[in-house]
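Supplementary Note 3. Input sequence used for the single-chain structure prediction.
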Amino acid sequence: MFFLRFIIIFFLFQNYTFSNDNLNLVIIDLDYIFKNSNAAKKLSKQSISEKEAIVKDKKKIESNLEKQKNDIMSKKNILDKKEFEEKVISHQKNVREYQVKINKDLKKINDEFIKKNIVLKKKIDQLLIEYSKENNIDLIVNKKAIVVSAINMDMTKQILDIINNKIK
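The predicted structure, written as discrete structure tokens, is reproduced below.
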């Protein structure tokens, strides 16, 4: 009985390995594609320029807040204690509002970047599906998951060219 089970299992596995002999496999480096595609570079540049604009505005506002602080501190001995404390509290409120605004703006930019990246990844996935159908590819594997492979299986450059041509 054991011998019969062994033979059945052996032939099942043997049949399975023979059926995968003609498996058309391609390897791509998804990280390389996401970092080096024109669309990804464009998204990254756009996000960086938006952050730089915020930093530029941030410097102006910070210098104004610093001037206000120095002005309040210079009037410390001139103003009565209650009036001085009111100005200090008002200034601290302005600083908190400024910090909240900056954090909100940066979060908005990061959220937009993430959303656009997700859309880009979906477009790339769709192009990979089309590529696999057109070229009769059974399996596309990320290069990270491979230990050793033949160089001719790596289609990263070809896929990157297709992505750069189709996604603007």
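The first helix runs from residue 2 to 19. Residues 16-20 have pLDDT under 50 and may be disordered.
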